[in-house]
Design brief:
alpha+beta
Length: 231
Amino acid sequence: MIIDQLFNSVLLSAQGITSIDIVQFLLCTFVSLLLGLFAAIIYMYRNDYSKDFVVTLAILPAVVQLVIMLVNGNLGAGLAVMGAFTLVRFRSIPGSAKDIAAVFFSMAIGLATGMGFLAIAAIFTVIMGVATILYNSSPFAERSRAYRQLKITVPESLDYEGMFDAIFAHYTLKHDLVAVKTTNMGSLFQLRYQVMFKPGVNQKTFIDELRTRNSNLEIALGRGLFGREEL
């Protein structure tokens, strides 16, 4: 049937043996680059991004495709590829969960095209692209925009346990200490809170009261202060 043939590898010969010629190679590479571009565009939708990372996502399927084609079931070649990758030392900033998922998405496309399953790669890319757009456009898993992120810096000599509870009780409906970290060679503590203000609260007055308790050190209030969810 035509549908069954659609999901066959374009690299299989009539005898069922995997073979690669220049036309098949160029076709797979073109599809890899096209689907990689689509994956990169999907990643850019409602997401902070850098050009370097987006370009990498776009070309990664073609790179993975070539590796899979060259290995082509050869155990020795597969071990050689693994050895080559172990010699590469990757240095980068920590990536977010969305960044890691995007890299695996591009690699999955390259694996499919490298084995010649172009139709499967295209259908998978479309399905994942639509799912990504729907999830990003929906309120699924969003925190209430009423929440603010608060960072308070205190000296290491200050016992911060319960120090700000009275202020939080007066100005906020909810507050949660989510993290504590040291800064300035351990001489300062940085407290990170999620807070939800009561209606009509004057945020400047709130910050001024906090300053009287933290020795007038740095205080930051806003959204997105804690960065992305790093992996």
